[in-house]
Recover the amino acids of this structure.
């Protein structure tokens, strides 16, 4: 009889221990009691579950990312493109995520695929290639409108790659090559222009410096000539008139001894001779 009691106690202990759940910080437990979900999820920490009566379901609250494989889409201008993107989401209501949708991630993937095709179908190819951020925002907003009913928040949608048709890729390659050539030509022309500007500027500065140097030289020559004249004038003021007359005659003598065939006598010559004769008589 004792052994029976011990065995029953062991079964009771195992039964009670089986109802203890340790829930980490990033998880919650949704309990279905007799098939009906409790209003609030349990956790974190130690959670007591009634064996047989309660059915616990663990829900991860961490943000998760999953990839939407390459999808074929037709743009508004009937261009066939392929797009793949990433969806970031997290559960904000564990109870709704359990009772509102059977397979949360599969449902979100299907919703994202159809939403992407609807959005791309309203946009022309050029805008699809250039307005990626705008498409990301539209995808996130539309997907989130539906997933909120499932207790899920879509935090971000990121288009990873857009593959246009082959002929479009070839045209884009040619366009990029032409653009690079154009920029190279502009850069070369700009370099030549800058070089010519610098050359002209240097020539202008050189001419300015030469003119400035010539001006300074003329000023110095004029100052030297003026100084020489003033010195001559100072000396001439103190010379005796007879000395000046004799120097004048010497100059005439030198002129007469030259090879010139014509000699022009100044009008003052008679006055000078008269002064000299008067001095001799005295």
């Amino acid at each position: 009889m004792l052994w029976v009691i011990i065995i029953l106690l062991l079964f009771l202990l195992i039964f009670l221990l089986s109802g203890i759940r340790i829930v980490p910080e990033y998880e919650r437990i949704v309990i279905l009691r007799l098939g009906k979900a409790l209003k609030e999820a349990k956790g974190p920490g130690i959670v007591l579950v009634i064996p047989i009566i309660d059915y616990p379901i663990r829900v991860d609250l961490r943000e998760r990312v999953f990839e939407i494989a390459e999808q074929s889409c037709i743009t508004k201008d009937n261009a066939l493109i392929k797009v793949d993107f990433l969806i970031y989401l997290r559960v904000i209501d564990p109870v709704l995520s359990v009772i509102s949708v059977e397979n949360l991630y599969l449902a979100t993937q299907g919703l994202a695929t159809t939403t992407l095709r609807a959005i791309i179908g309203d946009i022309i190819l050029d805008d699809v290639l250039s307005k990626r951020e705008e498409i990301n925002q539209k995808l996130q907003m539309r997907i989130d409108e539906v997933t909120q009913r499932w207790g899920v928040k879509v935090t971000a949608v990121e288009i990873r790659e857009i593959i246009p048709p082959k002929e479009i890729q070839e045209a884009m390659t040619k366009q990029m090559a032409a653009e690079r050539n154009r920029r190279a030509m502009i850069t070369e022309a700009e370099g030549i222009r800058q070089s010519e500007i610098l050359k002209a500027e240097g020539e202008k500065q050189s001419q300015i410096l030469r003119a400035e140097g010539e001006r300074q030289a003329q000023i110095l020559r004029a100052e030297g000539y003026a100084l020489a004249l003033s010195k001559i004038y100072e000396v001439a003021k103190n010379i005796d008139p007879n000395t000046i007359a004799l120097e004048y005659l010497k100059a005439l003598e030198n002129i007469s001894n030259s090879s010139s065939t014509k000699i022009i006598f100044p009008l003052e010559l008679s006055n000078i001779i008269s002064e000299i004769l008067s001095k001799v008589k005295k």
The helical segments are 2-17, 94-99, 104-120, 125-130, 132-147, 166-237, 241-256, 269-281. The longest strand covers residues 80-91. The chain has eight helices and eight strands.
